[in-house]
Design brief:
binds pyridoxal-5'-phosphate; 2 domains; L-allo-threonine aldolase activity; L-allo-threonine aldolase; alpha/beta; lyase; single chain; EC 4.1.2.49
């Protein structure tokens, strides 16, 4: 059966070129600092993001958790958007691993209001925790892959500087944000002290994410990576794919964005399906099927029967475009959803 996997851009498979590079990678023990391919990837990631140093981490979640751990002390408070990945989808890691508490603020399409951020910073009163970090997410996953405007990032960075509070950017999909904004990723990364980004999503590497920041900060992050068990040995095998991901893949993300828009425009014409077109900015599409009257079971089962995999939910279903999805797959998906809605 034809399978159309729209669950996430994490389902992308490594390209032939990545597999060859992996097979031929020069490697060593990276915990001893002896893996040349990992070093090359870390340097390249830092250079692309306009930072001093980089750190290769197994997952985006570990990268974010290391960032929080490296920026904070136990009992601190960190400011996050209320649907931020770090708050919502990292298994309570900030509490369990770093012992910090979250101050969540409601965003507008994922973007924090700078004046709300400023008002939420603690004053130093003896009763209060210390605010030690502001986290941003660009693109914002749960808001629909929305892009945080650079002007907002700039204002929040200025607030951070005013109060001496660092900014961590969860830039899992920062290349999607840069593509949508038509800017170099540096123009986004410059408003953050540390950035995490994923090689394993739209960039198609099999495994891995990066942290970038100052040299001093990355050295401390490296110790925290080891503490969390993320010190990998001949990781150059993975870094080799990451290098190709960085060199070859960002330029094609615009195709994913065009496909997501095409999908969203088709969906909103189907009776009972609603799409908030303002949220369609990159490669993520949320559709609301409440008005079709279909139960989650029948809707998701109908999709499954036709080989279409989505991130299930009610009333929202998430679909993500990526290298494994072409225009024809989207036409097939739209036709299938029309049939399901019509009771076919
Ligand atoms: C996917 C994602 C992560 C985490 O990445 P994993 O590699 O799956 O752990 C972090 N933040 C955002 C916004 C993401 O979409």
């Amino acid at each position: 059966m034809r399978i159309i996997d729209l669950r996430s851009d994490t389902v992308t498979l490594p390209t032939e070129e990545m597999r060859k590079a992996m097979a031929n990678a020069e490697v060593g023990d990276d915990v001893y600092g002896e893996d040349p391919t990992v070093k090359k990837l870390e340097e390249k990631a830092a250079q692309i993001m306009g930072k001093e140093a980089g750190l290769f981490v197994p997952t985006g979640t570990m990268g974010n958790q290391i960032a929080v751990m490296t920026h904070t002390k136990r009992g601190d408070e960190i400011i996050l958007e209320e649907k931020a990945h770090i708050f919502y989808y990292e298994v309570g890691g900030i509490a369990a691993l770093s012992g910090v508490q979250a101050r969540t603020l409601k965003g507008y399409y994922g973007a924090l209001d700078p004046s709300e951020v400023e008002k939420s910073i603690r004053t130093g009163d003896i009763h209060e925790p210390r605010t030690s970090l502001i986290c941003l997410e660009n693109t914002h996953n749960k808001a629909g892959g929305t892009v945080i405007p650079l002007e907002i990032m700039k204002q929040i960075k200025e607030i951070g500087e005013k109060y001496n509070i660092p900014i961590h950017l969860d830039g899992a999909r920062i290349f999607n944000a840069a593509t949508a904004l038509r800017v170099d990723v540096k123009e986004i990364a410059k408003y953050a002290d540390s950035v995490m980004f994923c090689l394993s999503k739209g960039l198609c590497a099999p495994v891995g994410s990066m942290l970038v920041g100052t040299k001093e900060w990355i050295e401390r992050a490296r110790r925290n990576r080891k503490r969390l068990g993320g010190g990998m040995r001949q990781a150059g095998i993975l870094a080799a794919a990451g290098l190709i991901a960085l060199e070859k893949m960002p330029d094609r993300l615009k195709e994913d964005h065009e496909n997501a828009r095409f999908l969203a425009e088709g969906l909103k014409e189907i009776p009972g399906i609603k799409v908030d077109m303002a949220s369609i900015q990159t490669n993520i599409v949320f559709m609301d099927y409440e008005e079709t009257g279909l139960t989650p079971d029948s809707f998701i089962a109908g999709l499954k029967k036709r080989g279409i995999k989505v991130n299930p939910g009610y009333p929202l279903v998430r679909m993500v475009t990526h290298l494994g999805i072409n225009r024809d797959d989207i036409n097939y998906t739209l036709q299938a959803i029309k049939e399901i809605v019509q009771g076919g």
